[in-house]
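QA checklist item 7 of 12: single-chain prediction sanity check.
[x] sequence parsed
[x] length recorded as 291
[x] structure emitted
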Amino acid sequence: FDIWQDPGQICYGWSVTTGTFGTHVVRESSVTHNGPYAVQFPVASGDTRLIKTDYLPVKPGQPYRYNAWVRGTDTGDELEIHVNNYKSDRSVSSDTTDTIDVAALGTANTWMQRSAVITTPADTHYIKIRAGLDGQSGTAYIDDLQMLEEFPSFKAYAPATTAVPADGAFHVIDFGSEIYDHGNNFASSKFTAPSNGLYHFECQLFMTTVSSLAFGEYGEMYFERTRAGSASTLGRTVQGADGTNVMTIRSSIALELLTGDEVDVFLKTVGKPVVLNNTITYTWFSGRQVS
């Protein structure tokens, strides 16, 4: 909103879709988060007011991070920020709307950040960002709204199969629950590279045994990269017995991947079977593209 030169009309690149400019939406210069101007939604109890950007070009299947700073004089006022999706011909996408944030302001007269990562649908080439309030009793503000490309990343936990036999064979670990998956590239416990680049992966496995591990008993973990049907073992890590009935193995690795390469995690134990702890605190697999 820092390019907002004319206080008599909405900022360039935006339109007022619900409400009236000058009554429900005005330019604000004294209460801003950063820069000369912000949007103010003045007191007008019960009235809905919404502003929306023009069409913004995006890449299909690309994750974007959306940030905005919001503020209000009434803690119960609910400020909404959404993304409307459109196809290449600017008709409505199959996934019509994604939500960045819908929440009460919570704290009066304090700037608060709202943020979310949203992956554009496969048929989406344009978006419009929509923001506003659905009824209010106080004055509210929005400033520093950003849309930035986000590198693909994920974090998963909770292996569906928690028991690993002590048969000396490697078993793929099934991470069945996602904390996040920016770009939707993690499925069936595998990350599939969406493009050529440098990626970084980390994994931690915490496990218990029925009795203390003795000398010569150990666990071994590695990352497996599959390229065009051919698998490679990478980042192999071994944790030996220490006389207790718990064992933690952790490894990380940076990999140059090509589009379509897959990465997953394998584990074997020698001496005693183990049971993997299935919480995000102890057992997880994460990765991200870094360039």
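[x] summary fact logged: The two ends are 31 Å apart (CA to CA).
[ ] second reviewer sign-off
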